[in-house]
Write a structure and sequence with these properties.
Helix content is 42%, strand content 21%. It is an alpha+beta fold. Strands 3-4-5-6 form a four-stranded antiparallel β-sheet. Strands 2-1-7 form a three-stranded mixed β-sheet. Helix 1 runs antiparallel to helix 2 and helix 6 runs antiparallel to helix 7. The protein is globular and about 55 Å long.
Length: 238
């Protein structure tokens, strides 16, 4: 049985990342027929599957020198937008209330899953969260709650290669593919969580500035990794 993908520990100098192994499905796509990439990505991802699927389809289309019909693209963009909104709504209902000393709002979460946002809008939960958020993190939560345009983009840097990008719930998602004889020869997924917890990401610096477990919890919920994570609140030696 595997443990959390990310583990955070408190030290006298702040919080630090002691383990980070964000899974990536890109290796499973090698050798796959290009036309099956989008479908495979939706099956492989439990979170942001619509975003992953569309990014893959756009990258493949760019590599093949094709476009996606505007009506079809607009329908897929709408699904990605709805998915991102739902992801944020569920975090607001289930995970973020603990930051302000409130219990998870399970009934509101069920309504969000059903597409009914009236109860959540009337609850004032978002306003209370922003009122209590640390000043440095407030813009992150505000931006997440406001949502961002999907803003899809795709291009072919060279024949047989395609790059696609779009904005999902947690940030900009970028897919890169190289095709050979109609099959995937190389594939790279640059996802928000892996990027922020990578060597050049901002997660380590944000956590290092934390003065306690409560501060670290705010940072982790602001980043909102798309994988399971845990935090050891017992202070360990730096």
């Amino acid at each position: 049985m595997t443990g959390p993908a990310i583990r955070i520990a408190m030290t006298p100098k702040g919080a630090r990342i002691v383990h980070c192994a964000v899974p990536n499905a890109q290796g499973l796509l090698i050798g796959l027929p290009a036309i099956k990439v989008g479908q495979a990505l939706r099956r492989l991802h439990g979170i942001c599957r619509e975003a992953q699927g569309l990014a893959g389809e756009m990258a493949v289309a760019a590599a093949m020198g094709e476009t996606i019909a505007p009506d079809d693209l607009n329908r897929r963009i709408a699904r990605v937008h709805a998915e991102a909104r739902r992801e944020t709504g569920l975090r607001l209902c289930l995970d973020w209330p603990a930051l302000i000393g409130e219990a998870p709002q399970t009934e509101l979460a069920r309504a969000v899953i059903a597409g009914d946002w009236r109860g959540l809008a009337a609850s004032g939960l978002a306003e209370r969260l922003l009122a209590h958020a640390p000043e440095a993190l407030r813009p992150i939560f505000a931006g997440r709650l406001a949502g961002a345009p999907v803003a899809p983009a795709m291009h072919a840097p060279e024949p047989g290669a395609g790059v696609a990008a779009l904005t999902c719930a947690r940030g900009r998602l970028i897919h890169r593919v190289v095709l050979h004889k109609g099959r995937v020869a190389a594939y790279t997924i640059d996802a928000p969580t892996a990027r922020r917890f990578g060597p050049d990401g901002d997660a380590a610096d944000l956590l290092a500035q934390c003065h306690g477990a409560r501060d670290a919890a705010w940072v982790m919920q602001a980043i909102d990794p798309c994988v399971e994570w845990t935090m050891d609140e017992a202070v360990e030696a730096a």
